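Give me structure tokens for this 113-residue protein.
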Amino acid sequence: MTDKVKVISSVNGRCVVNNRDLQLKRVWQGRGDVVTFTAEQIEQLMFDPAFSNMVNSGMLYIEDMEVKKAIGLEPEDAESPTRILMDEKTLQRFWKNMPLSQFKIETQKLTKV
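Here you go.
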């Protein structure tokens, strides 16, 4: 695993991780903010229900595929769908510009969190 792992916020609001046991506090101010952790910190934070819920629900996105596989967020086989981070442009296309028939087809390809 790599030493530094980028964790990206995918929500418009503020996200905070404050773990007193690890003496660790990180703040994301909005969508697209990036905070770095070590791989060991990520593994330990997955035992924190708040952090693991934010990662599992897609509020926070971990960029490093090796780390995601190590903590069980991504499947080991290549056939299973992987989690993707949608940018603002893609979300706008899904919600406003895409016809309903195409929307149904495209959403079937996405992972269900």
